[in-house]
Design brief:
The chain is an alpha+beta fold and about 375 residues long. The protein has helices at about 1-20, 125-135, 140-155, 160-170, 175-195, 200, 205-240, 245-255, 265-270, 280-285, 290-305, 315-335, 345, and strands at about 20-35, 45-50, 60-65, 70, 75, 95, 105, 110-115, 115-120, 360, 365-370, 380-384. A hairpin with a 6-residue loop joins strand 10 (about 360) and strand 11.
C-alpha cells in the first residue's frame, strides 16, 4: 500500500516545502520566526536563497540595502551605509548627475540609465521610483535636493509604521495560521497512516471504519481548503488593498495546488518590509541582539566604508555626500529604538581575544598584533 501512495505524497509534501523557498540572484537579509509570535524574537540570515521553516504559523520577510548611493550631486551604483556583509558591490561602476539622466528603464530585473546598466532593481529602488526621483531633483538647487533626498531616505528608516503593520498582520492571521496548522496535522496523520501501511497494521474493524470515513475526511479537507482561501482573500485585501493582480495570482495557484494553501501566512508578511532599510526592519521585529548587530554593522559602514584606492574621485565624492546626508537620519533611528542605542556603545572597542593583540579593525572587529598595519578591507586599525 505504501508504494502506491509514495509518489503522490512525495509530490504533495515536496510542493509544501517548496512554497517556503525564497531567493534570487543577489544576497538579501531574510527575517523569520517559525513560532509566529508577535514579540521581537525574529532571527535573520543573509543569503541569496532561504528556506522558511516548514511550519504553517511561520512568517518571513526579506529586506535589502540600496545598491546605490544617492546624493545631491548625483548618484552612483557604489553603495553606502549598508547593513549586509559584504555590501551589494557592483560589477562595474557607474555615476550620473541628476540633470544628465534622460531615461530610466527596467530590463530583466536591472535598472538601466541612459541605456547603461546601473544596478539591480530592488523593492527599495525600482526603475519607476528612480525615474520619478530624478525628474523631481533635476531642476532643484543643491540644498533643495538634500532636503528632498532626506525625506526620501527617512521613509526607509521609519520602523514604527512597519512594526505596527507587521504586528497587525500577525495578529489578524492567527486564526488562519491555526487553520493551516490543523490542515497540515490532519494531512500528516493521513500520510503516516498510508506510508506506514496502516491498513495492514490495524484491526479489520478499524480499517473498514477508516475506509468508510475517508469520503467524509476528504470532504472536510476540501471544506477547510476553501475556508482558508476565503480567509486569506479577506486578509490580503485588507493588508495590500492595491495588490489585486498579485492577490488573484496567489489565490489561483493556491486553489489548484492545495499544498501551497497550507502556508498562507508567508504571503501576508513577505512584502511588508519592501523598501525599508534592514536596520529599520530589525528594530521592529528581530531579537534585540540581532537588531543591535545590524545597527552596529550599519554604523560601521557609515564611519569606515569600503573605498578601494582605485575608486574614482567622483564616486568617492558622491558616496561621502550620501553618507553625510544619511548620518543624522540613521542616528535618529537609533534613538527611536527601544531601548535607544548609543553610537558610542555600538562602536566600543571589543574585548581582547589574544594576549599578543594590540589593535583591531573598527569595521570588521578582527584583531591584529601590529598597530601600524591595515585591515585587508583597507581600514586603518584602532588600538585596543
Amino acid at each position: 500500500m505504501s508504494s502506491e501512495w509514495w509518489s503522490i505524497l512525495a509530490v504533495f509534501w515536496g510542493l509544501y516545502l517548496a512554497d517556503g523557498l525564497r531567493g534570487g540572484r543577489r544576497d538579501r537579509l531574510f527575517f523569520h520566526d517559525w513560532r509566529g509570535g508577535r514579540r521581537r524574537r525574529g532571527a535573520v540570515v543573509q543569503t541569496s536563497w532561504f528556506f522558511t521553516p516548514p511550519a504553517p504559523a511561520a512568517w518571513m520577510l526579506a529586506a535589502g540595502d540600496l545598491p546605490a548611493s544617492l546624493a545631491p550631486e548625483g548618484l552612483t551604483n557604489w553603495p553606502s551605509v549598508s547593513a549586509a556583509r559584504p555590501p551589494p558591490l557592483p560589477e562595474h561602476i557607474e555615476v550620473f548627475r541628476w540633470e544628465d539622466i534622460r531615461r530610466v528603464e527596467d530590463r530583466m530585473g536591472r535598472i538601466y540609465i541612459n541605456d547603461r546598466r546601473f544596478a539591480p532593481s530592488t523593492p527599495g529602488l525600482t526603475a519607476a521610483s528612480l525615474g520619478a526621483l530624478a525628474r523631481d531633483l533635476a531642476p532643484l538647487s543643491s540644498a533643495a535636493r538634500a532636503a528632498r533626498l532626506g525625506t526620501w531616505h527617512s521613509t526607509r528608516f521609519a520602523s514604527a509604521r512597519f512594526g505596527r503593520r507587521l504586528q497587525s498582520a500577525l495578529l489578524r492571521s492567527r486564526g488562519l495560521a491555526f487553520l493551516n496548522t490543523t490542515q497540515a496535522v490532519l494531512l500528516a496523520a493521513a500520510t503516516a497512516y498510508l506510508l506506514l501501511d496502516g491498513p495492514a497494521r490495524v484491526s479489520p474493524e478499524l480499517r473498514d471504519a477508516l475506509a468508510g470515513a475517508s469520503p467524509a475526511f476528504l470532504g472536510v479537507c476540501a471544506g477547510l481548503h476553501f475556508i482558508a482561501l476565503a480567509w486569506f482573500y479577506r486578509l490580503h485585501r485588507r493588508i495590500y488593498p492595491c495588490a489585486g493582480q498579485e492577490r488573484a495570482s496567489l489565490l489561483f495557484t493556491a486553489f489548484f495546488v492545495p499544498p501551497q494553501a497550507l502556508r498562507l501566512r508567508l504571503h501576508l508578511t513577505a512584502g511588508l518590509a519592501a523598501g525599508l532599510h534592514p536596520m529599520a526592519v530589525a528594530s521592529a521585529c528581530a531579537h534585540p541582539a540581532v537588531a543591535r548587530d545590524l545597527a552596529t554593522a550599519t554604523l560601521r559602514d557609515l564611519r569606515w566604508p569600503l573605498r578601494p584606492v582605485d575608486l574614482p574621485s567622483t564616486v568617492v565624492t558622491i558616496v561621502r555626500s550620501a553618507s553625510t546626508l544619511l548620518e543624522p537620519i540613521m542616528l535618529a533611528a537609533l534613538e527611536r529604538q527601544t531601548p535607544p542605542l548609543s553610537p558610542n556603545s555600538l562602536l566600543a572597542s571589543p574585548p581582547r581575544q589574544s594576549a599578543e593583540a594590540c589593535a583591531y579593525c573598527p569595521r570588521c572587529g578582527d584583531e591584529f598584533t601590529q598597530p601600524g598595519a591595515r585591515c585587508p578591507h583597507g581600514v586603518p586599525l584602532a588600538r585596543l
